[in-house]
Design a protein that fits this description.
The complex is a heterodimer. Chain A is mostly helical. Chain A is built from 16 helices and four strands. A four-stranded mixed beta sheet of chain A has the order 2-1-3-4, sandwiched between helices. The model of chain A has no long low-confidence stretch (mean pLDDT 87). Chain B folds into two domains: 216 residues, P-loop containing nucleotide triphosphate hydrolases (Rossmann fold, 3-Layer(aba) Sandwich); 68 residues, 2-Layer Sandwich (Alpha-Beta Plaits), CATH 3.30.70.100. Helix content of chain B is 33%, strand content 29%. In chain B, a hairpin with a 2-residue loop joins strand 12 and strand 13. Chain B is of the alpha/beta class. In chain B, helix 2 packs across helix 3, helix 2 runs parallel beside helix 4 and helix 4 packs parallel to helix 5. The chains are: A mainly alpha, B alpha/beta. At the A-B interface, helix 1 and helix 10 of A face helix 2 of B.
């Protein structure tokens, strides 16, 4: 192989790349703009303001229990709660203005207090929800359970409805023909204890230090984001820049492949091939230029992220360099494969762009791969971008070491070799 | 210096070259003449090492050319039919790139670039991007790119396609100078005038085969007709008399294009008066008359029964 010829080919392509200022600007600006947008979204929008889930409550019951539930929901920081009618709630959910509508039907307060002590049929709460927000629906269901339990248990142990429920339950137990005598005795004891507790509370009513309380969640959650180290906050830009940088070096690779097809069309390939230069040298020259341009793009995009958005390599810096280098080589050999398989420049660009978007999407470039269903997470392991993006995530915000980085880099390099072999196998050397 | 021996090449069932043999001699231009699709470019591609022949061989200085990186390829300069240039780079950068492919570098490369640009009259435009060049300038630069490594053999595949007469003449002057320098050249064209003007020997191809070869004089001897009578007709249209004209004794062929009637004659002194008298009797008026010797167009017509540009 003639190294001088390979370097001359690479230098020529790099010169063309830098001569086209508009294309150069696009190659650098596009991934930065898109990655900044995605990073901004995943970082909570930057203002620190939490997005509340819009919920509408239809209180058809009007009991102290239903009012207490509404108050609880109103105070919840995760929810943006408001009152409505059933028709209004349905319309708002249908139009996407509310995520969930909660209908508290008439008689819910009495029935729920009785149901708390067993025997009675549980009353229903009707939840109207927007099917496109199924994730938020689950969250609202959990919060609603908490507020209903608090309100109903408070009423059962402290309120008039609770006293009536205990009285009715005692009568029901006494006349029950299905309960065993020992069960009847135990239940009667428990209900009478509750009744005594209610009488004590009634006697001390007016004493403000004794706040009426219901059943609450018996724990407080202390949340801690696990990043590269204690005190190191998660930087959402790290992932978005990894994804977009990989996506756009593949787009640059399309230019490399289409460029070869254009050179063939222009007859330039004939002149290259008429020189005493081996086929391998020609492909190596092209691969060198593709890798150099890709490395430049990676450096430009991550450089911006590091300077302006505080993205840091918390793991292995050598590992970061290895992943970038292997990704650049992979992109270059992907470009050569495009040149080998493509026929015309225009058609090749269209199909290749679709392939790159699929690779970026399935590799976790748009949304992190852990959001994918389990089967898809397994399947996408056969995609090089998945390894490149996971590797970059690993050495940036996850703070993982050289071992993990080299494992990812090796897999990416393996794909580079595979693409290169396909290019060698399918490249049309003769002009027809 | 460069020989093609019994070259064959097929694309599926299409035989693009069938038993083509030719030889390039220093200081001479061999013209490869034929219509589009005759197999000229395929022949050039095999000679330049761009494609391997199905059978036959290419000899450079008597040795068979072997593989893509055979150093013998440095003895050949190729001027492709297409403008094989990088539009986004300057003329100088283009040549420097092509020179580097032949192992040239440093001062030697810079001097070679200057010399090649000077040879085609583009030294003032060295730093200008090729995209700003006219078609004729690009053609001249296309020629310069093949001269950079000073090869003794030049393969020129229709190097004047689409250029203005002034640039064409400039290229012809360049080729004349290269011939004087002792370069062995192959020149493919479907313009008979170019072949007649430039070439020492001519090989005529059709459907992948050589159908005639020799000097212009050798080929003219193959002609049944020796002269052509040209008449600029006064009125266009209404040529129903043309088939009758062909029946006159001594008339080999007759055609009319853009108001000019072209009649090839076996013998001008006896045939011309007869044709003119016959036209007068038919009421066909003309404004101008001239005659010329029959050329390659007639040779091709005589050999294949069709015109070079009809094929």
């Amino acid at each position: 192989m003639s190294l001088q010829a390979a370097l001359a080919i690479a230098a020529k392509d790099v010169k063309i790349f830098f001569n086209d200022r508009r294309a150069l600007l696009f190659t650098l600006a596009a991934p930065i703009v898109i990655a900044t947008f995605f990073g901004f979204l995943s970082s909570g929008g930057g203002s620190g303001e939490k997005v509340k889930i819009p919920v509408l409550v239809v209180d058809e019951d009007g009991s102290s229990v239903s009012k207490s539930i509404f108050d609880g929901l109103l105070k919840d920081e995760a929810l943006g709660c408001g009152a409505s009618t059933e028709t209004g709630a349905r319309e708002a959910v249908r139009k996407g203005k509310a995520t969930v509508g909660i209908i508290i039907p008439k008689g819910f307060g009495d029935a729920s207090a009785k149901a708390l002590f067993g025997g009675e049929k549980r009353p229903e709460l009707i939840l109207l929800y927007d099917p496109s927000h199924w994730g938020e629906m689950g969250m609202v269901r959990g919060l609603l359970t908490q507020h209903v339990m608090e309100a109903v248990s408070r009423e059962a142990f402290n309120g008039a409805a609770g006293r009536k429920a205990i009285k009715d339950s005692l009568a029901s137990v006494a006349t029950s023909t299905t309960l065993k005598p020992e069960d009847k005795s135990a239940l009667t004891k428990m209900l009478k204890s509750v009744a005594n507790w209610q009488e004590r509370l009634e006697a001390t009513q007016g004493n403000e230090s004794q706040e009426a309380r219901g059943l609450g969640i018996p724990f407080d959650a202390k949340e801690e984001a696990v990043t590269s180290g204690s005190g190191v906050a998660y930087n959402g830009y790290a992932h978005s820049f990894a994804g977009m940088a990989i996506q756009f070096i593949l787009f640059a690779a399309i230019d490399l492949g289409a460029g070869v097809l254009l050179e063939r069309q222009r007859g330039l390939w004939k002149r290259l091939r008429s020189a005493p230069v081996s086929r391998f040298t020609l492909l190596v020259g092209k691969a060198l230029s593709g890798a150099a341009i890709s490395l430049f793009c990676l450096a430009g995009t991550f450089g911006f992220a590091m300077i302006f958005l505080k993205v840091r390599i918390h793991g292995s810096a050598i590992g970061f360099a290895a992943i970038c280098l292997c990704s650049a080589v992979m992109a270059a050999s992907f470009g050569l494969m495009i040149a080998a398989l493509g026929r015309t420049q225009a058609a090749t660009r269209g199909i290749s762009a679709l392939a790159v978007l699929m690779l970026a999407m399935l590799g976790g470039g748009w949304v992190p791969s852990f959001i994918f269903p389990a089967w898809m997470q397994r399947v996408t392991l056969i995609i090089p971008t998945r390894w490149a993006i996971d590797g970059l995530d690993g050495v940036t915000w996850r703070g993982l070491g050289l071992g993990y980085a080299l494992q990812c880099a090796a897999v990416v390099l393996l794909f580079a070799v595979l693409f290169g072999l396909v290019a060698l196998w399918r490249f049309r050397w003769e002009e027809e | 210096m460069l020989e093609g021996c019994g070259l064959n090449k097929s694309y599926g069932t299409l035989k693009a070259a069938e038993g083509i043999s030719l030889s390039l001699v220093p200081g001479q231009i061999l013209g490869l003449l034929g219509p589009n699709g005759a197999g000229k470019t395929t022949t050039v591609s095999m000679l330049a090492g761009l494609m391997a022949p199905d059978s036959g061989e290419v000899l450079v200085d008597g040795r068979p050319m072997k593989g893509d990186s055979d150093p013998a390829k440095a003895m050949i300069g190729l001027v492709p039919q297409e403008l094989a240039l990088v539009d986004e780079l300057s003329a100088g950068d283009n040549l420097a790139f092509f020179g580097a492919l032949y192992g040239m570098r440093g001062k030697k490369l810079r001097e070679a670039v200057e010399k090649a640009l000077g040879f085609v009259g583009l030294e003032e435009r060295s730093k200008d991007r090729v995209s700003s060049f006219s078609g004729g300038m690009k053609r001249r630069l296309n020629l310069a790119a093949s001269l950079l490594h000073d090869p003794p053999v030049l393969l020129l595949d229709e190097p004047t396609v689409g250029v203005d007469p002034q640039s064409r003449n400039a290229i012809f002057d360049n080729l004349g100078a290269l011939k004087e320098q002792g370069k062995a050249m192959l020149y493919t064209t479907h313009y008979m005038e170019e072949a007649e003007r430039l070439c020492d020997r001519i090989q005529i191809m059709d459907h992948g085969k050589t159908i005639a070869e020799g000097t212009l004089r050798d080929l003219s001897a193959l002609l049944p007709a020796t002269s052509r009578l040209l008449l600029e007709l006064k009125e266009r249209g209404g040529r129903e008399w043309l088939p009758e004209l062909l029946k006159l004794p001594g008339v080999q062929s007759a055609s009319e294009e853009e108001g000019t009637l072209s009649v090839t004659l076996r013998d001008l002194p006896t045939g011309a008066p007869e044709v003119l008298a016959w036209l007068s009797s038919k009421g066909v008026a003309y404004t101008h008359m001239s005659s010329e010797r029959a050329g390659l167009e007639e040779v091709f017509l005589a050999l294949t029964g069709k015109g070079l540009r009809d094929s």
